[in-house]
Amino acid sequence: MVDRWIFEFYRLLTDKLGFSDPIHAAIVHLPIGFVVGAFIFGWLAVLFGREKWALSARHCVILAFFFWFPVVFFGLTDWEHYYGRAWLPPIKIKLILAGLLFILLTCCLVFGASKKAVSKWVILTLYTFCLINVVFLGWFGARLVYGTNPEMTLMPYKSGRLVFIKECRNCHPDGGNILIGKKTINGSPKLKDIRTFISFIRHPEGEMPPFTRAQISDNEAEELYLYITTLLNKPGTPK
């Protein structure tokens, strides 16, 4: 159900607003920029003894913390929509770094608001760790876009994956078969070519219901076939 909502949301953005790019990429620079601002203002405040600049640094931290939430939220929806929750190495690292950034920003806010005297060097150290964190977040974000095998993304077979989620996954999770364990999608002779596959889903055997062209068009069936044979059975790719 969530998969469907996310798909419809992105289709709305594309069809109605003409926005077809990942949302995360458009807004991720907001918390990164504010972290950089906190680092710069924090160090300048210490070096030149300007309390107002220290306050500016704290305001940057507050804004970075605020924007962390929508950036992570849309990062997860982009991950679902464009990568199908594939556990690519850059994704794993970015999730860890995002969690660590949340902890660091929280510490900055807590220590900065503490009534007890907190060393300015503690605050500056936290700002520095935040900066290092976002640098690595940016690095692994770039690796995700420019350094990942295109076969690991779902852009070519998104409609096929959506059909699988809507019509097939309940009975065939991960390419299996919960009704008849021996007759799995994985390794099925019905996948030897597209014509055999389409003929089978139109006129299936056993308990499987037939899928008419009104339910799954021939184009969607071809995309479904490509999704199953190209991505579904590969280690590390989404199901």
What features would you describe in this structure?
By secondary structure, the protein is mainly α. It has helices at 2-17, 23-27, 29-48, 51-83, 89-113, 120-146, 158-168, 194-202, 218-232. The two termini are 15 Å apart. The protein contains 9 helices and no strands.
Radius of gyration: 24 Å
Please trace the helix and strand order, writing H or E for each element.
HHHHHHHHH
Tally of contiguous helical segments: 9
Distance N to C terminus: 15 Å
Main beta sheet strand tally, sense and closure: none
Q: Give the total of beta strands.
A: 0
**What fraction strand?**
under 5%
Q: How many domains would you count in the coordinates? A: 2
Mean pLDDT: 84
Q: Could you give a short description of this structure?
A:
The protein has 239 residues and is mostly helical.
